[in-house]
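Morning. Coffee machine broken again, so started the prediction first thing and wrote up yesterday's gels while waiting. Chain of 186 residues, entered below exactly as on the submission form.
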Amino acid sequence: MSSSPARGRLGRGALNYPGIGGTEHGQRPAGFAWVVNRAYLGEGPELYRRVAQGILAWELQKRSGLRVRTDSDAVVPGARVLSGFGVGPFRISAPCEVVWVRTPVPGDGPQSAGFGYGTLPGHPVRGEEAFEVEIDGEGRVQLKVSAFSRPSNWIYAAGAALGRRAQSHVTSRYIGSARELAAGES
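Came back before lunch.
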C-alpha cells in the first residue's frame, strides 16, 4: 500500500513487535501477556454473517465508544486505524495496522471470520489484538477477542495494572458491540 497523507496521520513507522500475525493461530512471542475472551452471541448462520460483516467494517471499534479514524472503510490487510479514548490532554491514541483478515466462506459449516491488527509506534503497548466471530457445527456463534501485549515503555509499564483494567473495560465494550450486531441493531 502506498503512503498517503492520511496514512501518515494514522500512524508512522512499522509494526513494532515480534510474532506478527500470531493472533491468527493463537501464538504469542515469549515475554508477552496473552488474553483470550469469548462471549456467546446466539445461533445461526445469518447471525454469524451479520456479526462478521460488522467486524470487517470496524463496527466493534466504532460502537465501543472509541474515537476511530481509518484509511479504509473495510478491514483489509495493511489498513491503518487510529483509535483513542480519554478527554483533551488525557486522550490516549492507539495506532494500529491490520496484519491478517479472514472473511466468511460459503456454506453453513464451522468457520470463523475477523481480523488481527498490530501496534505501531505511539501505541501504549506493543503487540497484537484479534477480533473473530466463530460458528460451530451446532450453529452456536461466539465472539473471540484475543491479544498479546506488553507495555511500550517504562511509563506504561508503571501503570500496567491500570492498563489491564482499561483493556478489560474496552473488551467488555467490544462484546457489547458484537451483541448489538447480533441483535441487528443499527
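The longest strand covers residues 140-151. Going to sketch it on the whiteboard this afternoon.
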